[in-house]
Amino acid sequence: MNDLRTHYFTAVKLPLHVIAYPKNELFVGRVNLLQDLSKKFLPVPRPERTRTPAFAIWGNPGQGKTQTALRFAYSKRASFDSILWVSADREQKLFEGFSQYALSLGLITESIDLVRDTQKLIDWYQKTGQFFGNIWR
Fold it and tell me: Which residues neighbour 105 within 8 Å (Cβ) at sequence distance 6 or greater?
């Protein structure tokens, strides 16, 4: 690991998994979709990756999209140093979630400017080679 990456990793508190909902112990099914998610995102890191993988889970309300994403996040969290689950239904909530995560990681000491906080978080992800930008809705 080069000095820059070492600096950015030692400045933060890892692992940090912020998942907005509790684990659903009653979840069943969706085996094929969970396997597809694993193939897309694991193992971490993948040296041959040149872009952050993305995976969309879409469909009508009540079909289990959120629960499937939650099952993946909880069952595979040991594979990731960082999991951030933020609400993206409004821009303000998205930026607040990013700011809170930057605070939890120790990238900022207080939230003063949501846009600046978000940029610090994005910069950290880019400089450390962590994933950023996967949105499940």
Answer: 12, 13, 14, 16, 82, 121, 124
How many structural domains compose the chain? 1
Residue 101: domain span = 3-128
Q: Is the peptide bond before 61 cis (omega within 30 degrees of 0)?
A: no
Q: Which of 74, 118, 66, 110 is nearest to 92 (CA)?
A: 118
E strand residue ranges, the chain = 16-18, 82-84
Report residue 12's pLDDT band, with 50, 70 and 90 as the boundaries: confident
pTM of the model: 0.71
CA distance 9 to 41: 21
Amino acid type, 114: L
